[in-house]
Each structure stands twice: as structure tokens, then as C-alpha cells.
């Protein structure tokens, strides 16, 4: 009788999963998603329900970190990273302070400050005696090339696993 209640109380996702695999099979989320066309949420929910009923036991768990392009990342990809925009503006117009740069580029002052800090750390820009941003080097923006490449990869691939990032991207 108790068995019958358990069987009658199964959700269709649970039933499909139980009927598809043998009792001794080790299964994974990607496998269930591929073979049964479950999305990740359905897969996780079926696993949780079956584990809660004692019909499935977790053998191991692996956490993966994935990255995707945010709305801000899409904006930076289209309009340019703040660092790129600062370099471009300072290369054509000199004698601009950080607040002036932020206003001209319509950046938050904190974003302009962070971008300038990254440029200064990379040896590409500095502050003169009048608190104006100056270029130190025009070439050698390899970290900007890396960021630009990462934005382009994310736009093309949608998501990237942390393990797929290069050392520079990470």
C-alpha cells in the first residue's frame, strides 16, 4: 500500500527519469539533460524530489563557475571599455581632469576613477602636477586587448566556463 502511494505521488519528470535509467546507473545532470531533453531546472528538481523520497542518492557533486555577458558588458562591448574610451579621449584632447573625463564620457566618477587606476597600474596613464590625466605609453595595452577579446568571446559563445578561460582572462 505504501509503495502504491509513493508511485502514484511521482511527478511525470520523476517517472521519466526512473523509467529511462537502470537502478545501478550513475547519472549526471548533463546526461539527463541530453537523453531526456530536460532543462537544468527540471533535472535538478527531479533529482531533489527523488533524493527526498529515497529513490536516488547523490554520489558526488561538482560546482562549475560560468560567466555570461551582462547588460553592462554588452554596453562596454559596443561603446568601448571605460579604459579604452579614456585612452582615446586623452590621446586627442589633453588637460582633462578625472571629473572632466567622467563628464565628457558620461561615466560615473567612480567608474572613471577605477578605469584610470587600471590604466595607471598598467603604466599607460598618469596624473600630471595639475591633476590632469596624461598618456605614458600609447602601446602595450595587452590587458585591454584581453578584456576586449573576452567580451567578444562571451558575445559569441553566450557563456564561458571558468575552466575555459586563459590565465590572462581569469
In short:
This protein is mainly alpha-helical. It has helices spanning 2-8, 12-20, 29-36, 40-52, 71-79, 82-92, 98-104, 109-121, 142-157, and strands spanning 66-68, 96-97, 125-127, 132-135, 159-161. The chain has nine helices and five strands.
Topology:
Blueprint: H1 2-8, H2 12-20, H3 29-36, H4 40-52, E1 66-68, H5 71-79, H6 82-92, E2 96-97, H7 98-104, H8 109-121, E3 125-127, E4 132-135, H9 142-157, E5 159-161
Antiparallel strand pairs: 1-5, 2-4, 3-4
Helix pairs in contact: 5-9, 7-8
Characterization of this structure:
This protein folds into two domains: 2-52; 63-170, Arc Repressor Mutant, subunit A (Orthogonal Bundle), CATH 1.10.10.10. By secondary structure, it is mainly alpha-helical. The protein has a three-stranded antiparallel sheet. It has helices spanning 2-8, 12-20, 29-36, 40-52, 71-79, 82-92, 98-104, 109-121, 142-157; strands at 66-68, 96-97, 125-127, 132-135, 159-161.
Radius of gyration: 26 Å
How are helices and strands ordered from N to C?
Answer: HHHHEHHEHHEEHE
Q: In which range does the helix fraction lie?
A: 40-55%
Domain count: the total is 2
Please state roughly what percent of the residues sit in beta strands, choosing from under 5%, 5-15%, 15-25%, 25-35%, 35-45% or over 45%: 5-15%
Low-confidence stretches: none
Could you describe the largest sheet, including whether it forms a barrel? 3 strands, antiparallel
The computed structural class is: mainly alpha
Shape: rod-shaped
Amino acid at each position: 500500500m505504501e509503495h502504491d502511494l509513493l508511485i502514484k505521488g511521482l511527478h511525470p519528470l520523476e517517472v521519466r527519469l526512473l523509467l529511462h535509467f537502470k537502478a545501478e546507473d550513475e547519472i549526471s545532470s548533463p546526461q539527463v539533460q541530453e537523453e531526456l531533453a530536460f532543462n537544468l531546472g527540471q533535472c535538478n528538481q527531479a533529482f531533489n524530489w527523488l533524493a527526498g523520497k529515497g529513490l536516488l542518492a547523490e554520489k558526488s557533486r561538482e560546482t562549475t563557475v560560468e560567466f555570461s555577458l551582462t547588460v553592462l558588458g554588452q554596453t562596454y562591448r559596443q561603446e568601448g571599455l571605460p579604459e579604452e574610451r579614456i585612452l582615446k579621449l586623452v590621446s586627442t584632447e589633453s588637460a582633462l581632469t578625472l571629473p572632466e573625463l567622467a563628464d565628457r564620457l558620461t561615466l560615473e566618477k567612480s567608474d572613471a576613477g577605477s578605469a584610470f587606476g587600471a590604466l595607471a597600474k598598467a603604466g599607460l596613464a598618469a596624473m600630471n602636477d595639475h591633476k590632469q590625466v596624461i598618456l605614458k605609453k600609447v602601446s602595450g595595452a595587452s590587458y585591454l586587448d584581453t578584456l576586449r577579446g573576452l567580451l567578444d568571446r562571451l558575445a559569441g559563445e553566450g557563456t564561458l566556463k571558468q575552466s575555459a578561460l586563459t590565465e590572462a582572462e581569469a
